[in-house]
Amino acid sequence: MAIIHKTTMMPSKLELLKAWLPAQPWYLGTETEPDLTRAGGFRLDDPAGEVGIEFMVVTDGSGDQADAYLVPLTYRGSALDGGDAALVGRSEHGVLGPRWIYDGTRDPVLVAQLAALIRGEAEPQAQSISNTPDPTVIVTPVAGDGPGDQVTVRINRVLRSGEDGGTGAGESAPAAGPDAAEAAPGGQPWQPCLSATWRRSDGSLARGVFASGRPQA
Predict the structure, then answer these.
(1) Does residue 72 sit in helix, strand or coil?
(2) Are 177 and 190 contacting, i.e. CB atoms less than 8 angstroms apart?
(3) Which residues contact 3 (CB under 8 A, 6 or more apart)?
(4) Which residues pair with 43 in a beta bridge?
(5) 80: DSSP letter
(6) Which residue among 34, 155, 196, 200 has its CA within the 20 to 30 Å range from the CA of 163?
(7) pTM, rounded to two decimals
(8) Contact 75, 54 (CB under 8 A)
(9) CB 204: neighbour CB atoms within 10 A?
C-alpha cells in the first residue's frame, strides 16, 4: 500500500490547481483567482507501486456560494509518455524529489484502478493516512454488470451533495458520455456507482456522487 509522507511539496498541490482549474471547461468560477481549500477525497493504490493516485476534492470560495470540484490526480517520478496535455504541473516533493502531476482522468494507471474499484477489485484508501482503508467511500454495482462485463465510468467534476450527486459537468474515464440523466441512443442510462464525502466551507460534511457508470454496449 502507498506510504503517505508528512512533508512539503513546492509548489503545493493547491498552488498548482489555482493555475490549472480556470483553464478547464467545467470550471464555474469567474476571472478572479480561485480561492481553494482542500476539502476531502481518497486514494487508490497502484499495484506496481510507481504512481500515486488521489481523488482530491477542493472547494472554491466560501459559504453557500462555494463550489466543490473533484480533481483526480496522479503523481509520477518521471514524465508520462504522451501526457503533456494532461500535465497539471511539476513539484518538488520533500522526500521523493521531482514529481510530475497529471489530470488523472487521462492517466492510464488511474483509469485502470478506478475500473478495478468499481468492479470491487480495489479498496479505497484514506487520503492522508498510510495503509488505512477509507470506509466512507461507497461503491454501488452497476446494474447489468456481470463477471467480465465492461463498464464505462464517468467522473463528476463538479460535485453536489445528495444522492443524485453530479451536475452533468463531467469527464469520463476512459470515454466521454452524455448527462447522467440521459442515455445515448440505444445505450444504457448512467447509474451512480461511487460516492464519498467532503467538508463544506462551514465545516459540515456533504456526500455526493463522484462517478457514474453504465455497461458498455
Answers:
(1) strand
(2) yes
(3) 130, 131
(4) 54, 125
(5) P
(6) 34
(7) 0.85
(8) yes
(9) 8
pLDDT of 185 reads 44
More confident residue, 3 or 74: 74
Q: ω into residue 147 within 30 of 0, thus cis?
A: no
Read off the C-alpha cell for 70: 473533484
Q: Which residue has the cell 467545467?
A: 26
User: Which residues sit opposite 206 in a β-bridge?
Assistant: 198
Length of the chain: 217
Half-sphere exposure of 56 (CA within 13 A, CB side): 22
Question: Cα(125)–Cα(122) distance, rounded to whole angstroms?
Answer: 9
| Contact present, 190 and 164 (Cβ < 8 Å) | no
pLDDT tens digits, one per residue of 117-168: 998 899 999 988 878 999 999 999 886 655 556 778 899 999 988 744 444 4
pLDDT, tens digit (0-9, with 9 covering 90-100), for 160-202: 887 444 444 444 445 333 333 334 445 678 899 999 999 998 8
Looking at this protein, which amino acid is placed at residue 31?
A: E
Tell me the residue type at 180: A
Q: How far apart are CA 34 and CA 75, in angstroms?
A: 22
Residue 53 · residue 76 · CB < 8 Å: no
